[in-house]
Design brief:
17 helices; about 0% strand
């Protein structure tokens, strides 16, 4: 009996995984490039996301490792931080009101979507509450596993919601004329080589500090803070080269699309209707609160739409970058909702969810 050398045994899986990673990135780049060529709004992130999602659903073993994920989020954070200016803080006085409305919108959206899933699709209360929660997918998945909820179904509902928002919001804002046609970020000069080094160093340092204190989305927000501080202090002028910003947007799109690689087609198709219906409920409730913000504050309508959209934090911030929407306003609100979901949802599940024994039966 021949024995396979240890070096070969370890090399083959690593080589296979590397090919899967390269395939994921290549498909994402092709999709993003196609959408960009077609001049579709948000083309890089939407194209990459859709292309990777389609390939994953078709059965391709796509994946993106944590190192590339972190690098992409750092690039995204640096780009967002480069947009910071005093002008972007003009709506800061409205933050307490809009954050309060966002917390209420999150609660109503979760309860509304949960009620729909229970009444129309017969879901148990625990699974319905967790599926109806907007954002914080990692925390929701862990909590679902602990409570014995239907994790695959929850993942389908959450992921489809993010896919629809990431692909649909750019189209909606552009068609309705709500997305600004241009911004300083679009013509912002590229930072010098020493400036780029300072930006990367500050971004990584701030990210590591936030990671140490267990701050949510530490890589993205750390890079955003580090870059923002350097620009706000006038120590660095300019931002990343356009091709690096493009890599960040394609990377975020590929990250979202690759979520489908962990889903079986049968499970996905079995919960599509539930996902679409609960999304419709959530978006109608969010739209009602966006209307209140539009009537009671001076915040731009496009800013409030992206800030209140019940999607993933990294995806919505990437859209803020590509659609030239206020990254500070969007970032503060999505971070607030992340904190609210992380704190409130376990309590809601404890109070209103089915007992563990009932879920397991």
């Amino acid at each position: 009996m021949r024995r396979t050398p240890a070096s070969t045994a370890f090399a083959l899986p690593n080589r296979t995984r590397a090919l899967h990673i390269l395939e994921t990135l290549a498909i994402g780049a092709a999709g993003g490039g196609l959408f960009l060529w077609a001049r579709l709004p948000g083309g890089l992130i939407s194209g990459a996301m859709i292309a990777v999602a389609v390939a994953a659903i078709a059965g391709r073993p796509l994946s993106i490792p944590s190192l590339i994920t972190q690098s992409v989020l750092v690039l995204l954070g640096i780009s967002l931080g480069s947009l910071m200016s005093r002008e972007l803080l003009q709506h800061a006085s409205a933050y307490p009101l809009t954050i309060g409305l966002l917390a209420l919108a999150t609660f109503c959206s979760t309860i509304g979507s949960s009620f729909y899933l229970q009444q129309i699709h017969g879901w148990d209360r625990t699974s319905a509450l967790l599926a109806g929660s907007p954002g914080a997918l990692s925390q929701i998945t862990i909590l679902a596993a602990e409570k014995g909820a239907d994790v695959p179904a929850i993942a389908v509902v959450q992921t489809i919601r993010v896919i629809i928002l990431t692909a649909g919001l750019p189209m909606l804002l552009t068609v309705t004329g709500m997305a600004p046609a241009s911004t300083a970020a679009a013509t912002m000069k590229v930072a010098s080589l020493p400036g780029l080094v300072e930006l990367v160093a500050a971004a990584i340092a701030a990210s590591l500090v936030l990671r140490w204190i267990r701050f949510p989305a530490s890589w993205m927000f750390g890079a955003m803070i580090g870059s923002g501080l350097l620009h706000g202090a006038g120590l660095v002028e300019g931002t990343l080269p356009p091709w690096l910003r493009g890599i960040a947007l394609v990377g975020v799109g590929a990250l979202i699309g690759a979520r489908f690689a962990r889903m079986r087609t049968k499970i996905l198709l079995g919960h599509v209707n539930a996902a679409l219906g609960s999304f419709a409920v959530a978006i109608l409730i969010s739209a009602a609160f966006v209307s209140v913000v539009a009537l009671t504050t001076h915040v731009r309508f496009s800013d409030s739409v992206v800030a209140f959209a019940p999607g993933a934090m990294d995806a919505m911030l990437a859209l803020a970058l590509t659609l030239h929407i206020d990254p500070i306003f969007v970032g503060v609100h999505h971070l607030s909702r992340f904190v609210f979901v992380s704190i409130a949802i376990p309590g809601l599940v404890h109070l209103f969810g089915r007992p563990q024994d009932d879920v397991d039966d």
